[in-house]
Amino acid sequence: MNLLKNTFLLFCSVFISITCLGQMKFNSNKVIAHRGAWKANSFPQNSLASLKEAVKLGCEGSEFDVWMTADEVLVVNHDGDFMGMEIEHSTYAQLLSQKLPNGEKIPTLEEYLKAGKKQKTTKLILEFKPSKISVERSERVGEMAVKTVHRLKAQKWVEYITFSFEGGKKAIATDPKAKVAYLNGEKSPAELKEAGFFGFDYNIRILRQKPEWIQEAKALGLTTNSWTVNTAEDMIWLLDQGIDLITTDEPELLFRILKDKE
Ligand code: MG
């Protein structure tokens, strides 16, 4: 009887997994909103409101930045300081003493991922910031970010980016399936492939100097992304180079350019 019950439960869980997988339909339009879609509506960068706006616009991905507090809580904010408090030297409770201009509190990574999981069209591009304190702390942030994503079962939504080569390698070691792209711009596609990275996300100035890296990366099966691309001229140039993704503060402009190119 137990065997029958277990078989039935196994069948149900496989069925539910397949059904859920079938419902994941991420947009495919190259548009990554940088720190969420904040500019047109003056939302705070990296706020839940800017994430929701990126989803509403239909972006392929919404990027956000992650720091670790002194008491090891991962929080979402661009700069190393939040309202005059150095995040790495402050406790999470201390950060709660201030609010974002729209009244939100600083989101924890957990809260941000839970909000992101409520939709199934926009990927969450998680940038974990290198620690200003130590390489070990950078590695810890990478490891903890991956573990948080796993705990919340958010792997299908999340891709990672980082300026920390060591932190990136730690994230890949923590989850060999983690899709980690490198931001700093000094590594060749071959070096990234060798280290297990998923792709690059390089500054437009680097790619203007080394446009051949885009095709080299694609030939190696790496993804290509560029930041922070805010002019029509740069967007069109990258699209002509065959870039996979463009990270921008101006997602509405990029959507218009893509539509004109159709
Ligand atoms: Mg960022």
TL;DR?
This protein is an alpha/beta fold and 262 residues long.
Description of the structure:
The chain has 262 residues and is α/β, with parallel strands linked by helices. The chain has a single domain (31-260), classed as Phosphatidylinositol (PI) phosphodiesterase (TIM Barrel). 43% of the residues lie in helices and 18% in strands. The longest helix has 22 residues, at 2-23. The termini are far apart. Residues 16-21 have low confidence and may be disordered. Bound molecules: magnesium ion. Magnesium ion (MG) binds next to β2. Magnesium ion is lined by residues 63, 65, 127.
Indicate the percent of residues in helices. Answer: 40-55%
CA-atom Rg in angstroms? 19 Å
Q: Count of DSSP helices?
A: 11
Poorly predicted runs of 5 or more residues: 16-21
Average pLDDT works out at 93
Bound molecules: magnesium ion
Please name the CATH architecture. Answer: Alpha-Beta Barrel
Mind summarizing the main beta sheet? 8 strands, parallel, barrel
User: Would you report the number of β strands?
Assistant: 11
For this entry, give a set of tags.
alpha/beta; 11 helices; binds magnesium ion; eight-stranded parallel beta barrel; TIM Barrel; two-stranded antiparallel ribbon; 11 strands; globular; about 260 residues
Secondary structure blueprint with pairings:
Blueprint: H1 2-23, E1 31-33, H2 48-57, E2 61-68, E3 74-76, E4 81-82, E5 85-86, H3 92-95, H4 109-116, E6 123-128, H5 135-151, E7 158-162, H6 165-174, E8 180-182, H7 189-195, E9 199-203, H8 204-209, H9 212-219, E10 223-227, H10 232-241, E11 245-248, H11 251-261
Parallel strand pairs: 1-2, 1-11, 2-6, 6-7, 7-8, 8-9, 9-10, 10-11
Antiparallel strand pairs: 2-3, 4-5
Helix pairs in contact: 5-6
